[in-house]
């Protein structure tokens, strides 16, 4: 893709729009690409990019961190999770710290690894920590279905999965942050299809563009969003056509629907949002860790009072506004979840952004 031509069009359209424009890139991978490629510095002064709630590690609330830590400390129990979750601070400790004290913990690349662990060790309860958006849910659904089929009742999932479109609409309804358009996450859209965002454009009158993850993809998506704004349109368009269609993946959606049902979900920084989460259907209760370990569910959790991860996730503030950023909170010693994950906004700013932004866009 010719980024130069897209940047020229962006500048023309920004001038035609005639006002400052704030576009939210929902996905953490988009945030990383925008910084690492230098795309942010090429944008005209009137066009700003906001990081959104697209990091699954970041939006998982403290309650679930404390819950899975308690599960990991039970006898004959192993928690399987992705690497980033190990270092996220809970109220008092982290999975990394309790592992050092002997808690059962396995780092996996896929929930299938956790299922295989359960098959190899029938006397051990293996609990997969299910986080993430629609991209990862189908594989988790498959493992639950397969565990039920094979009678692997020592395999369960603590489900903290979330769905993206309703949360995006919630940010607009809250009115705290002005968002003029959404760069929608490409990998989520592979599963759910672009039509899942139609209600955002229809009800909130905001343009949406499903974007891929190369710098050229993002530049074209920004151009498409600005063109909609300049023409006073609010539609869902697809830049990432090589992978995304209107309808999504029917087999993946069927697998999700078979195993999970909608529920309200708590998001770090966004609070509780109706219909934005998934829970395991009663038919598969034998593999639902929230039922099997309900006695360990924490009544409450707490965050470091100086951490502003919640504000950063909403796009209300940037990491530079946090008194802990770079001073106390660093990738080697994270205070908040946004500094842990490679897709976290604080981690991205730490790696790629200077203390001062020459363009005034941080």
General description of the model:
The chain is 39% helix and 18% strand. With 362 residues, it is α/β, with parallel strands linked by helices. It has two domains: 1-300, Rossmann fold (3-Layer(aba) Sandwich); 309-349, no CATH class. The protein has a five-stranded parallel β-sheet. The protein has a four-stranded parallel β-sheet with strand order 4-3-5-6, with helices on both faces. The protein has a two-stranded antiparallel ribbon with strand order 10-11. Helix 1 packs parallel to helix 12 (215-230), helix 2 packs parallel to helix 16 (345-352) and helix 8 packs across helix 13. The model is unreliable at 355-362 (pLDDT under 50).
């Amino acid at each position: 893709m010719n980024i130069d031509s897209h940047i020229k069009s962006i500048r023309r359209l920004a001038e035609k729009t005639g006002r400052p424009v704030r576009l939210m890139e929902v996905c953490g991978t988009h945030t990383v690409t925008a910084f690492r490629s230098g795309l942010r510095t090429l944008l005209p002064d009137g066009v700003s990019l906001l990081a959104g709630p697209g990091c699954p590690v970041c939006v998982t609330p403290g309650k679930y961190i404390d819950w899975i830590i308690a599960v990991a400390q039970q006898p004959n129990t192993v928690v399987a999770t992705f690497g980033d979750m190990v270092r996220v601070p809970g109220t008092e400790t982290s999975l990394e710290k309790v592992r050092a004290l002997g808690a059962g913990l396995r780092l996996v690349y896929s929930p299938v690894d956790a299922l295989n662990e359960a098959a190899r060790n029938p006397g051990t309860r293996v609990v997969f920590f299910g986080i993430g958006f629609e991209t990862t849910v189908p594989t988790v659904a498959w493992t639950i279905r397969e565990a039920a089929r094979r009678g692997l009742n020592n395999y369960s999932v603590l489900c903290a999965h979330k769905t993206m479109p309703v949360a995006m609409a919630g940010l607009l309804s809250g009115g705290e942050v002005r968002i003029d358009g959404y760069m929608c996450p490409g990998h989520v859209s592979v599963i759910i299809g672009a039509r899942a965002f139609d209600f955002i454009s229809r009800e909130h009158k905001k343009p949406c563009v499903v974007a891929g993850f190369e710098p050229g993809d993002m530049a074209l998506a920004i151009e498409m969003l600005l063109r909609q704004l300049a023409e006073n349109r609010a539609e869902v368009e697809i830049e990432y056509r090589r992978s995304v269609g209107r309808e999504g993946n029917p087999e993946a959606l069927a697998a999700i629907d078979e195993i999970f049902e909608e529920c309200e979900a708590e998001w770090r920084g966004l609070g509780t949002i109706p219909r934005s989460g998934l829970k395991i259907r009663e038919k598969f209760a034998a593999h639902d860790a929230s039922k099997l370990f309900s006695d360990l569910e924490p009544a409450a959790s707490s965050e470091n009072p100086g951490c502003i991860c919640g504000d950063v996730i909403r796009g209300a503030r940037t990491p530079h506004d946090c008194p802990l950023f770079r001073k106390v909170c660093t990738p080697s010693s994270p205070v908040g979840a946004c500094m842990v994950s490679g897709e976290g906004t604080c981690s991205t700013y730490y790696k790629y952004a200077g203390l001062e932004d020459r363009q005034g866009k941080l």
